[in-house]
Amino acid sequence: MRAINMNHVSVSAYDIEDSIRFYEGVFGAQRIPTPRFAVPVQWARLGSGQLHLFEDAHPAPARAHHFAVTVTVDDFDAIFAIAKSLRVLDRVVFGHHLYELPGGEGQMYLRDPGGNLVEVNCAGVAAAGPQVLAEIRKLSDDRPQSEENQRARLFLDGSS
Description:
Layout: E1 8-13, H1 16-27, E2 30-32, E3 41-46, E4 49-55, E5 66-70, H2 73-86, E6 98-100, E7 106-111, E8 117-122, H3 130-135, E9 137-138, H4 139-142, H5 147-150
Parallel strand pairs: 1-4, 5-8, 6-9
Antiparallel strand pairs: 2-3, 3-4, 6-7, 7-8
């Protein structure tokens, strides 16, 4: 027995409309029909998966809990510019907001309006624009990597 795919991720939102507008504007999420629950909920299509937002007045869980979204390098540049203008880049949790991993993948960390940490990934971040390249750090510069660590790949099937 094994899972076929990841279906959805649910995250809290202080204000559903504010959060759904954020995901629409930053990632191109599309609202989809949503059942009625005991609290306000909105489902959204995000690539081939779904993001479920539920209204909750409590802060988001532990500061490092997150979900990740894969985008193209061009979209990585665009999302970086938007996140920077909105001042939502998270520079604290992992020590910096932009990293290049050993396999050349890019990782960007930002916070949504509900305080949830969102990781944005792309393959081949070396092809990113000058704004990203000016601020990106190699993970190996901050954290020494063993030979085995250097073989790590974020996209296991070789695709993005």
